[in-house]
Amino acid sequence: MKKKIIITLVTIIITGFAYAQTEPDYGSNPKTGHRLNTRGINMYYEVYGTGKPLLIIHGNGGSIKDFSKQIPYFSKEYKVILADSRSQGKSVDTGDSLGYEMMADDLNALLVHLQLDSCFVIGWSDGGINGLLLAMRHPEKVKKLAVTGANLWPDSTAVEPSLFHWLAGLVDSLRRVNQTPEIKNQYKLLAMMTREPNITLQQLHTIKCPTLVIGGDHDALLPRHTLLIAENIKQSYLWIIPNSGHSTPINYSKQFNENINDFFKTPYRIIEGMDRLN
């Protein structure tokens, strides 16, 4: 009996170890990780699955691994492409300048490198800003766009006021301390959030692709600002998630994945006139 228990425990340990060994290490996966020298940086990216291409873009200070709940789901049907944005993750950038437009153009360069004419796009937070800019600056590259927790400009009308003032104070503190390479990079990333983006409503009008605009009802980006984004994109849907903050792809991953997948697969529907009663 004791021997049988020991064998069972060993089997469980070995099985668990084998599972751990085969589970992809998203963001540090040597089997699917690649490097692209482009636009002054060495960009790190990973590709999973086959099918129609889907680009997923992370937020400020994040990396590919932030989408561990999206990659397994979408890679069953799509060719999922994820990159560490410049100055983040494994995409090191020692330059002083940093901006959202730079990152959007980096992503365009990646799509050109991969010889992709167009793709679906998901962007979270800063990734949502990059998605909007990609659709404006390189409209031919974006087939459909889903953004969550994005903003158009950096002030307390877009960002929850106490969080915006906290961020401004943090940036000021970082500016005053000894600028090690790590602190310099962190300062560069956070300072960008206090001066960018600067997207006008007129610029939003140039987005032609169907767009799903998402936010939590208690998001760091104010719901009324999320509504403003949706109202100024011609082919848009709005999804405000109840009882949700900023981390919709994590805390509401099942609904997030399924609703976006349905949006990608279903033709955009114009709802006007009497159809609004349905």
Break the fold down into its secondary structure elements and pairings.
Elements: H1 2-22, E1 33-38, E2 41-48, E3 52-57, H2 71-74, E4 78-83, H3 100-113, E5 119-124, H4 126-137, E6 142-148, H5 161-176, H6 181-195, H7 201-204, E7 211-216, H8 223-231, E8 236-241, H9 248-251, H10 253-265
Parallel strand pairs: 3-4, 3-5, 5-6, 6-7, 7-8
Antiparallel strand pairs: 1-2, 2-4
Helix pairs in contact: 3-4, 5-6
> From the coordinates shown, what is the CATH architecture?
3-Layer(aba) Sandwich
Rg calc: 21 Å
The overall strand count is 8
- The number of domains is 1
Supply the CATH class. Alpha Beta
CATH topology annotation: Rossmann fold
- Report helical residue fraction: 40-55%
Class based on secondary structure composition and strand pairing: alpha/beta
Strand content bin: 15-25%
Ends distance:
66 Å
Q: Which strands sit side by side, in order, in the main sheet?
A: 1-2-4-3-5-6-7-8
Query: What's the main sheet like?
Result: 8 strands, mixed
Low-confidence stretches: 1-21
Count of alpha and pi helical runs: 10
What can you tell me about this protein's structure?
The relative contact order is 0.11. An eight-stranded mixed β-sheet has the order 1-2-4-3-5-6-7-8, with helices on both faces. It is globular and about 60 Å long. The protein is 40% helix and 18% strand. It is built from ten helices and eight strands. α5 packs antiparallel against α6. The protein has 278 residues and is α/β, with parallel strands linked by helices. The protein has one domain (42-267): Alpha/Beta hydrolase fold, catalytic domain (Rossmann fold), CATH 3.40.50.1820.
